[in-house]
Design goal:
Layout (H helix, E strand, L loop, with lengths): L6 E9 L2 E10 L4 E6 L8 H11 L3 E11 L5 E5 L1 H17 L8 H6 L4 E5 L3 H69 L5 H14 L3 H18 L6 H20 L4 H21 L4
Helix pairs in contact: 1-4, 4-6, 4-8, 6-7, 7-8
């Protein structure tokens, strides 16, 4: 199935401890280029993210961004810092002795002392697993988006191919009349000169001139290339580079057709062909 190289996907998950949000953007690019932006707590996921992208995509500039929002105090445990607690108890005892105060130290007094209670980050393994699962969903959504866009591009290219075939077919039918008109035009010019002309020599010159202007091969090659484009569009594989090459071939034949033009009609046909080919080329730049 044809895939576009442009697309966007977003997935998110709201939890008691906060949220995770993935955003993936892809643009056309000659090769596969993956950019991953992760918060420090999720840095371990980078290799897995790149692996997932490489499995599903072949070309494109892909930007993967993860936002990890943690609510204050979430995903954290608390523990007693024994060193700070011992120092506080020791200081309290010294102060009580100095002041001849026999009151005992209350636990809450100890816990309120700065540094006695400290937060310890919990294991984020389950959060990372959730983040990776969300990414798999997001990259799958991106692939689906690129496939839908690819089908639209396919229809556009097919439509342009049909237009090219129509122009080529019309030109092939008109060639005999165009050649006869060119021959008659040469005869009229010679008649205006009012000189005797060797008819055999004249016919020879006409044949030479028409041979120089012959575009049968160009029309045949245009038809062949269009058929190849339509065939490639039906393949279930990355086809962007192949199509881009065929656009170059089509453009070359259209240029040659224009350079050999012997009538306003054939010139107009060459221009129309170049417009259609350029329209296809612009769309094909986005095909994987």
């Amino acid at each position: 199935m044809i895939k576009s190289m442009t697309g966007f996907a977003r997935t998110d998950s709201q939890q008691d401890w906060g949220s995770l949000v993935w955003e993936i953007r892809s643009l056309n690019h000659r090769y596969l280029e993956v950019s991953v932006r992760l918060p420090e707590e999720m840095r371990q996921l980078e290799a897995a993210v790149r692996e997932q992208v490489a499995k599903l995509l072949n070309r494109g500039k892909v930007e993967c961004n993860l936002r990890f929002v943690r609510l204050p105090g979430a995903l954290c445990g608390m523990q007693l810092n024994r060193e700070h607690a011992d120092r506080f108890v020791h200081l309290h005892a010294e102060a009580a002795e100095l002041l001849h105060d026999s009151s005992s130290l209350q636990p809450m007094q100890l816990l309120k002392w700065p540094g006695v209670v400290e937060e310890v980050e919990e294991d984020l393994g389950s959060v990372r697993e959730l983040a990776l699962s969300l990414f798999v969903q997001a990259i799958s959504d991106l692939v689906e988006n690129r496939q839908r866009e690819g089908e639209s591009l396919k229809e556009i290219v097919q439509s342009r191919c049909q237009n090219i075939e129509a122009i080529v077919s019309k030109m092939a039918q008109r060639l005999p009349d165009i050649r006869e008109h060119a021959k008659q035009r040469l005869q009229d010019r010679l008649s205006e000169l009012d000189v005797d002309v060797d008819q055999a020599r004249f016919e020879q010159e006409v044949v030479i001139q028409l041979h120089k202007m012959d575009v049968d091969e160009e029309l045949d090659r245009l038809q062949t290339h269009v058929k190849e484009v339509l065939d490639v569009l039906g393949r279930d594989e990355p086809i962007g580079r192949r199509l881009d090459f065929l656009m170059q071939e089509l453009n070359r034949e259209a240029n040659t057709l224009g350079s050999k033009s012997i009538s306003v009609e054939s010139t107009a046909a060459a221009v129309d062909l170049k417009v259609l080919i350029e329209q296809m080329r612009e769309q094909i730049q986005n095909i994987e």
